[in-house]
Amino acid sequence: MSSTTSIRNRPEAIRAVPVRHPGRWIAVAVIVLLTAMFVNMLVTNSAFHWDFIAQNILSTPVARGALTSMELTICAMVIGIVLGVVLAIMRLSPNRVLSSAAWLYIWAFRGIPRLVLCVLFGNLGILYGRLEFGLPFDHQIGQLFGVTDFHARIFGLNWSSLIYGFVAGLLALALSEGAYMAEIVRAGMQAVDPGQTEAAQALGMRRPTVLRRIVLPQAMRVIVPPTGNETIAMLKDTSLVAYVPVTNELFFQLQHIGARTYLIFPMLVAACIWYLAMTSVLMVGQYFLEKRFSRGFGATGRARMRLRTRGAGAPGGVVEE
Amino acid sequence: MSDAEVSDQPEPPGPAGSTDLPPPADCMVLADNVHKSFGRLEVLRGIDLAVPAGSVACVLGPSGGGKSTFLRCINHLEKIDAGRVWVDGELVGYRQSGDRLHEMRERDIAEQRSRIGMVFQRFNLFPHLTARQNVMEAPCQVKGKRRTEARTRADELLARVGLADKGETYPAQLSGGQQQRVAIARALAMDPKLMLFDEPTSALDPELVGEVLDVMKDLARSGMTMVVVTHEIGFAREVADTVVFIDGGVVVEAGPPDQVIANPRHERTKSFLSKVL
């Protein structure tokens, strides 16, 4: 049977009438109609003041505000990621003290809204003028032993002159991000096959080396996509630092122009355009990062593609014979 | 291989229960009354084993009998609960001072492991590294070898396992048999004095088993001390100096293959062999 099939000629390729999809055409019609209505609303309503948007969207204070927002995003994410990796390693540590401390941090900073954190950090200077390091409860301990003026502070710095505006906003965003990143990194590390750690240990690698060379690089594949989400969310959340207050930030600047000129809505539209443009840039970056960290895993995809082309080529070869 | 066969101890060492046994110098692996439990489940209930340097020990037995757990105790991937394991005269995982045992620091355990190669059932190659990088990784990271030097050695080892042209390939693009051979090369790159194999061919398609066994035979011929947990009775018969049959957490029978495989004395060994042969 099988020997005869190889001798028989290849039959004519199937040319069947494809299934019709009337639903798709209806969907196209509806969407085109809705888009036209939306564009009509944007263009014909003079309340949008497109000329005013065009005038102001690239003005110096607005551009500077966008730059500040970008800076805040990048710095907060860098600090947040580093903090997140450290917290995730602590969280997975066999040392109970370290893992509980990380749990407590995550509990606190994930539970408090970012807006509240921003206001809180903006006002920390009122609570503590100076930040000092040394023996805790030194005054109370001194009093316990009858010394009224006992000081055991090693060094101090002027908190209120350090933690304000940009730095306060950055701290609020970065510390909160650290908690979220910790959970993302932990999920990534737990997604790596335990056999990888075992193989590395069997080769004589120590825990730090195993983490740095084997576990984290593989975890990156799982970590990068949600981190991209976090970065985009962070860019949007930079608008919260207006409450610290940080005034040279994008949204505050646009609102400010709106409030001054009574053209509030056009400036909101300008803000949308700015945020969309910046998130688009971030998405491009994310694409390349994802590609970089799927090395060795994307390989199966490539191999599959090669198989597919080879499979398609084979029957063609039979026809020619 | 021939001198290993003359070895004077095909039998497992004698009295279980002795604790301060000084390790014989000619034994690469010496296990004395090893116990291990996972929670309430007692997996190893007093394993004794001696593997002379340069010889090959094949560990046979039904699944769940404790073979793999015992193998993992030899390089301290599992902590034993009682008994002693020595590798090359050195206590594994612990340091004895007086009559007290001290847990080793991670650094010292890692150092011990670096001299014991291990090959896993599921290969466990590092998927984000190419075959060559897999082999180079440990020499560079653990021994601090220079990359050029490690690279030359990695290419030698890949050639030795018949994969000279696969250096740039990622594990996902290799067949199971090729992956396992890379894993063997990776273990050899640390110049181990002992190789542990944990069912190295059990996850392979039948037609790929041969290529891995050939590499292992070649390794045995070169004088490497090997402990092989396997279901390949043919391999055990051909290569092993000692065959150890483990079931229920104890060594049921041990001896040269023509004794244990051809003429098993114990009922359990007989019934197991009748099923797999």
Word description of this protein:
The complex is a heterodimer of chains A (321) and B (277). Chain A is mainly alpha-helical and 321 residues long. Chain A has helices at residues 2-7, 22-44, 50-56, 60-91, 96-111, 114-127, 138-144, 159-162, 165-191, 194-202, 207-237, 250-261, 264-293, 298-320; strands at 130-134, 153-158. In chain A, strands 1-2 form a two-stranded antiparallel sheet. The longest helix of chain A has 32 residues, at 60-91. Chain A starts with a helix and ends with a helix. Mean pLDDT of chain A is 85; it is low at 299-321. Chain B is built from ten helices and twelve strands. Chain B has helices at residues 2-5, 67-74, 106-113, 131-141, 147-160, 176-188, 206-221, 233-239, 257-260, 267-276, and strands at 27-38, 41-52, 56-60, 82-87, 90-91, 94-97, 100-103, 116-119, 194-198, 225-229, 242-247, 250-255. A six-stranded mixed beta sheet of chain B has the order 8-9-10-3-11-12, sandwiched between helices. A four-stranded antiparallel beta sheet of chain B has the order 2-1-4-5, covered by helices on one side. In chain B, helix 5 (147-160) crosses helix 6 (176-188). The relative contact order of chain B is 0.17. Residues 1-19 of chain B have low confidence and may be disordered. The A-B interface holds A 193, 195-196, 198-207, 209, 213-214, 217-218, 295-297, 299-300, 302-303 and B 75, 77, 106-107, 110-111, 113-118, 120, 122, 124-130, 137-138, 141-142, 170-173, 183, 186-187, 190.
